[in-house]
Design goal:
This protein is an alpha/beta fold. It has one domain: TIM Barrel (Alpha-Beta Barrel). A seven-stranded parallel sheet has the order 5-4-3-2-1-9-8. The protein has a two-stranded antiparallel ribbon with strand order 6-7. Strand 6 and strand 7 form a beta hairpin. The protein starts with a helix and ends in a 15-residue tail after the last helix. The relative contact order is 0.16.
Length: 352
């Protein structure tokens, strides 16, 4: 969901062309995704320093970032999400700017960036507590690469963009992830890793770092945390590795969504089928791009096949969802509660 559309499509084509032909992947054990079968749908929040700077016209600095994070209304957002009937929430830790919404001593030690661009408040932990009170699980978002907008961090972390082994970087990045995972423990129920564009080069090694060590770092604090690795925008449900529990599912047009069933309904190659798209004009920004009827119809199509659907929803400066988007999310929840997303036939293709 970074703004690299042309490059990402090309990179993804290369990844898929090189993927081994794998069939009959075993269901991960234990079935960490069991709770997702009941959750059925969720809400995603992009809260990123550079995006807020563009939206709010606020120059970004450590001081301004801490002020933004400090004023994020976790209880207000959690209550809004509860009111819609969504079963989980995905919240960004950070992305390309190098600003993160929670502390991480390992990141600070490795990058030596001072003052730290990691916020003083642990927004992730505070959000997790607010959601837990309301029976909602939290999944966190993090890119698989170094923050491209911070050249000092890229250099310090030894990241080389492209189809490279990047073993030195990955070892450091897994240490950063492990720090967060141990910090949060069971308060965080899952991870969604963006930008896994070169899986063969970076993660398919028989020895660490690889997919297994990547997932293990994320599960250091919670062995039951679900993990997904995103290869880019793709229309069909695709699992990259048996080390993930659900499909990343980034898709721009849900009308093109295709589920290839392998094994139990709602699973592909052992991973829970999941799609992720955006309600605004672009990720995390803009006015609604769909009518409420379209949003409900597309959601029901995914859920009726046993899949999950997550809607990225823009938020305001204080972290709250505006009424226009809240109305659409509420309509999804009502449709799902009435059983429209459980037994109805779906028009989603089931190609091979």
């Amino acid at each position: 969901m970074r703004q690299w559309t042309a490059l990402r499509i090309g990179s993804f084509a290369l990844c898929v062309a090189a993927l081994p032909l794998v069939s009959g992947w075993a269901q991960p054990a234990p079935d960490r995704a069991a709770w997702m079968k009941e959750a059925r749908w969720g809400v995603m929040t992009h809260y990123l320093a550079d995006w807020r700077a563009r939206t709010d016209k606020v120059p970004m600095s450590v001081t301004n970032w801490n002020e933004l994070v400090d004023n994020f209304d976790v209880d207000g957002l959690a209550e809004q999400i509860k009111s819609t009937g969504a079963g989980y929430h995905i919240l960004t830790i950070g992305q390309n700017s190098g600003y993160y919404d929670c502390p991480n001593p390992t990141y600070d030690r490795l990058t030596k960036i001072q003052p730290s661009k990691c916020s003083q408040r642990d927004l992730i932990l505070d959000m997790a507590h607010a959601l837990e009170k309301r029976g909602i699980k939290l999944i966190v978002y993090l890119p698989a690469g170094a923050p491209g907008g911070d050249s000092n961090a890229v250099k310090a972390l030894d990241f080389h963009r492209g189809a490279n082994r990047n073993a030195a970087f990955q070892t450091k990045w897994e240490a950063v992830i492990r720090d967060w995972s141990l910090r949060w423990g069971t308060n965080v129920s899952g991870w969604w890793f963006d930008g896994c564009y070169w899986p063969n080069a970076m993660y398919r090694s028989a020895t660490p770092p690889n997919f297994a060590s990547f997932a293990a770092a994320a599960r250091a604090g919670n062995p039951n945390a679900v993990v997904a690795f995103n290869p880019g925008v793709v229309d069909r449900a695709l699992s990259l590795t048996p080390d993930e529990d659900y499909t990343a599912g980034e898709i721009n047009d849900l009308g093109r969504a295709m589920i290839r069933q392998t094994g139990p309904a709602g699973f592909v190659d052992g991973a829970k089928v999941h799609f992720l798209s955006f309600l605004g004009q672009k990720w995390g920004m803009g006015a609604p791009r769909f009518s409420t009827e379209q949003v409900v119809t597309n959601s029901v199509k995914i859920i009726s096949q046993g899949g999950l659907i997550t809607w990225d929803t823009p938020v305001q400066k204080n972290g709250l969802i505006s009424q226009a988007f809240l109305d659409q999310l509420t309509a999804i929840g009502k449709a799902v509660a009435k059983g429209k997303g459980t037994n109805q036939a779906s028009s989603i293709p089931t190609g091979q």
